[in-house]
Amino acid sequence: MILGGGVKAYVCAEPVDMRKSIDGLAQLVAPLLKGDPFSGSLFVFVSRRREKVKLLWWDRHGFWLAYKRLERGRFPHPALLGLRAVSVSELAMWLEGVDLMRTRRLAVVNALRVA
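Request: output the structure for the sequence above.
Response:
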């Protein structure tokens, strides 16, 4: 499994029942995230207490499902992440416990030529 830098992740701001598996989560993608489960995007689902996360994505041949349970602490609140797509690097930071709402990215540079 290799995710390219162009893959977008969509985080569900509403808590989800972590007993759901691939089929149950895939059925939630359209109504909760306004997405297509077969698009190749990552879809992120968080438990009510924010100590569990499931990632769902399609790779042309089948679905992948990743699951992480924290032994201590909680993931940062996903409410503001649910408003936009996040990059794979932002998702990795969020899964490591970084509150992305308290950080900022450098501005994008549109270079026209090499100096």
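The first strand starts at residue 8 and ends at 11.
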